[in-house]
Amino acid sequence: RWQKIFMIPLWSKMAVFWNKMFLTIIVLLIVLFLDAVREVKKYSAVHVNEKAANVNTNAFDHIQMKLFRSQRNLYLSGFSLFLWLVLRRTVTLLTQLAKGMASHAALETQVNDATEAAKKYMAENERLQEALSEKGSSKKKESAEATDEKLKKEVEHLKAELQKTSNALHKANNEVTAVKKQSEGLKREYDNLMKEYEWLQVGGSGSLHEHNV
Predict the structure, then answer these.
(1) Residues in domain Bap31/Bap29 cytoplasmic coiled-coil (predicted)?
(2) Is 200 within 8 Å of 208 (Cβ atoms)?
(3) What is the DSSP string of 87-134?
């Protein structure tokens, strides 16, 4: 409410001359207060002197009237000066309060905006993390499938190599068996030949002995 009151264009126009006007009124009130003090002192002394001199009633009443007016001016000027200073302080405090409320409202608005923006950014961050996690899981799944396919191919290749090696080993075993059989046949033939040779030697020596006899 006070902020709306002080936002009236009239105050903005008066703001330029407000300090000068205030100081002028302060000086005027101080001058009136000092003049009233002087008048009170003056007519108080005259009142005492006239009362002691026992002058006529009209002159005494006139002096009392002047003293009353000077005292009235003293009270009015002093009270006006006091109220003017209080008014000045009140206006200053109200202005500071209005500025503080405006700054508080602006800060509250900024805090609310920052909070909303932070919530929005957090939500977007969560969505991005979910998207990245899903993408990463899909990539992991694809890479796992590719790895499985590669492993399957390697297993097939190893099976083929193992089959080839098994066939080669079987063939080698067959060749070794054939070689063993050939070796045994050759050994038997060698034994037969050795027996025949011995028999021939024995038979040849017996024939020669009979011939000599």
Answers:
(1) 153-205
(2) no
(3) HHHHHHHHHHHHHHHHHHHHHHHHHHHHHHHHHHHHHHHHHHHHHHHH
